[in-house]
Amino acid sequence: MRLFVKPSIGQLQWIVWVFVFLVLTLSLLPMDGFAQAFVYALLYTTFYAAIIYGNIYWLYPSLYKKGRVIIYIIAVLVFLVVIGIVKSYITLNIYNLFFAKHPETMSVKAVAGMVIGGFMVFLLSFVFRIAIEYFKLKQHTDEMIARKTQAELDLLKSQVQPHFLFNTLNNIYYEAYLEAPRTASLIERLSDIMRYFVDESPKQLVSLTTEIQFLENYIALEKIRIRYDIDLDFIKDCEATISIPPMLLMTFVENIFKHGIDKSSTNNKISIRLIQNNGRLSFITENTVPARQVKAPSTGFGLVNLRKRLVLLYADDFELNVNHENDSFIACLTIPLA
């Protein structure tokens, strides 16, 4: 929430003129009373504004800036004399009409005083003009800085470093470890999964150790949602140094937890095996089938997409089989090792 909004140039000018009006009112108040001080302050402020804006928006740009200096000086003198006469005439008539006990007449001395006062205000108009230009330049600069900052923020938003999130999760992990070690362990697994997606999944090949760790982290997080313990057996009869394409084994494990687990049952069994033999790697999963359907039936998109990917990777040099036998669901994938 923005608690303070910078005023615009127009608003700043209004603030200045209100301030001038208040100063004039307070200075005239001891001699003239509130009503007369108020009227005269309003009148003087109006004429001061006419002199200043008449110069900076009319005489100066139309004459001086075009090189017509002599004409500009003459025009300024005429302008100030006219303003002085008009101001004297209006001031005198207002005074005689509302405030004077005895009417007064307009004198040359009074007009001369008005003209000289107008000349002093005219000199201030240059200061006023410089101030306006300064605020315009500053406002333009602030807008450019704001646009640049916003552009940089937009760029950062579109290129947020995932490691910031990892570091934050690490900090949360250390805080949770003191109070709830199990929760801390789950946070660590979530961090590892996210790091896998960011750092490993774009690669062509990842180590089997990394893939296994990813599966184990996923299983640990999925088990949170299940009321009872699962009888899970994960056998790894393979070399840890071999490499495979990332996310190749995930579909089977994901399908088990989406469609093969009954959260209300105490008899959920899962068997996962990785077997290396004769230059090939077999990934076999087996799980009990729930007695009642706990989720909508699978559309099979996961296996369809997996098969398409396997064709792209290995042409026809792979085996992918799924079988439903009695109360068990068995899936088997065999791929060549490079």
UniProtKB/TrEMBL annotation:
Keywords: Kinase, Membrane, Transferase, Transmembrane, Transmembrane helix. Pfam families: His_kinase (PF06580). The chain crosses the membrane at residues 12-31, 37-60, 69-90, 110-132. GO terms for molecular function: phosphorelay sensor kinase activity. InterPro entries: Bact_2-comp_sensor_kinase (IPR050640), HATPase_C_sf (IPR036890), Sig_transdc_His_kin_internal (IPR010559). Coiled coil: none annotated. Residues 151-227 form the Signal transduction histidine kinase internal region domain. The keyword Membrane applies. GO terms for cellular component: membrane. Gene3D superfamilies: Histidine kinase-like ATPase, C-terminal domain. PANTHER family: SENSOR HISTIDINE KINASE YPDA. This is Histidine kinase. It comes from Mucilaginibacter glaciei.
